[in-house]
Design goal:
Elements lengths: L1 H24 L5 H11 L3 H24 L12 H16 L8 H13 L1 H35 L7 H27 L2 H8 L6 H28 L1 H28 L7 H25 L9 H12 L4 H40 L1
Helix pairs in contact: 1-13, 3-4, 3-6, 3-10, 4-5, 4-13, 5-6, 6-7, 6-9, 6-10, 6-11, 7-9, 8-9, 10-11, 10-13, 11-12, 12-13
């Protein structure tokens, strides 16, 4: 079993390295232009990359609140924040590189966390956290509609029929998502997910065999998912608020780059607040655009287009949008490298621990 998990870990590791190579080769700019943008960013690159230390810490705290919530099995081991932090970074590193919605990190998280709290509990916590991550996305998009509407009433951002219809569509889209999530939280999603996979051509027989062999485990996972929402509302809403907060903090990345271009809405506290709200709107639109088109690996070209369109829609230069997209792509590459290095270092530490125990 140890050898099998080690091989799986190596597979994830080399997959991450391959993703970095693909990412570098698919840049829409030459390395000379990339270096020019890096030089323009200058020392601002430090807070742009460094803010993700805070974002991942918030994500890890959100996940920890889910793990600590609900019912616990007797004798279950606790999971340290440092371990969850490493799994958060490595999981997102794999997610950045994975097509079809960026779900590559979840199997890795389940495999690693199973060593601490068992397979069923690890699976339910990872599924719950992934659900919460997406749930918070919808709340971020939904509340951003009202932020935009308020700024439009103040005459700060444009409003016309096209914008109005788009905002209405986003609201309806989010409300439908809230309903779907509420059903999933009440009844669980593990069994439904396996059945949905079975509808994919060629996977029907596998789905039936998996359900027949693991019906009890799937029922237990769904029970744990529904228990958190029904019995531990504090853990549920703590996780949701933290995930939403991570989106707000992530807006700092765009905020720093707008300040770099001298875009500060007149300066002063009011100007900075207004610029930060613009940054939140830019991030909201871009993330919505990227997630709708999330079947592309690393959202190649989609994220860039989202930044350019959203920034231009707020009356800023398209060149600013291109700069923001390129630096964000560079930041992703840096954190993918950090994530896969942490994966390998952690695997090496586990090997040392096993040798010491023997």
């Amino acid at each position: 079993m140890t050898w099998t998990k080690q091989r799986v870990n190596n597979l994830f590791f080399f997959f991450g390295l391959a993703a970095v190579v693909v990412m570098m080769l698919t840049f829409d700019v030459s390395f000379a232009d990339l270096w020019m943008h890096v030089c323009k960013a200058g020392y601002w690159l430090v807070p742009i990359v460094g803010i993700w230390l805070v974002i991942y810490a918030i994500n890890a705290l959100s996940w920890m609140s889910i793990i600590k919530g609900g019912n616990h099995a007797a004798g279950e081991r606790s999971v340290s924040f440092s371990r969850l932090y490493r799994l958060t970074v490595t999981g997102y590193a794999l997610n950045y590189a994975t097509p079809v919605g960026g779900l590559g990190g979840e199997p890795y998280r389940i495999m690693e966390l199973s060593k601490d709290i068992g397979k069923e509990r690890a699976t339910s916590s990872v599924i719950l956290y992934a659900m919460m991550h997406f749930f918070a996305h919808f709340w971020f998009w939904f509340l951003s509609v009202f932020v935009y509407a308020i700024l439009a009433l103040c005459g700060n951002v444009p409003m016309n029929w096209t914008v109005g219809v788009t905002l209405a569509f986003v609201c309806i889209f989010c409300l439908l998502a809230f309903y779907v999530f509420s059903v999933g939280y009440r009844n669980g999603v593990a069994l439904k997910l396996i059945r949905w996979i079975g509808k994919i051509p060629g996977l029907g027989a596998w789905s039936e065999r998996f359900i027949a062999a693991h019906a009890e485990m799937l029922a237990e996972i769904d029970r744990q998912i529904s228990d958190l929402h029904r019995q531990d509302r504090k853990a549920f809403y703590t996780s949701l608020i933290l995930e939403y907060l991570s989106r707000v903090v992530q807006s700092s990345e765009v905020f720093f780059m707008l300040l770099l271009f001298g875009i500060d809405s007149g300066g002063g506290i009011d100007g900075f607040i207004l610029t930060y709200l613009h940054s939140m709107l830019i991030l909201a639109f871009t993330s919505l655009f990227a997630n709708v088109m999330g079947f592309l690996p690393m959202q190649l070209g989609v994220q860039e287009g989202g930044f350019v369109i959203s920034i231009a829609a707020l009356g800023m230069s398209a060149a600013v949008g291109m700069f923001v997209s390129i630096i964000c792509r560079l930041r992703e590459i840096i954190w993918i490298l950090v994530g896969i290095m942490l994966m390998k270092i952690h695997a090496g530490n586990n090997d040392v621990d096993r040798v010491s125990e023997s």
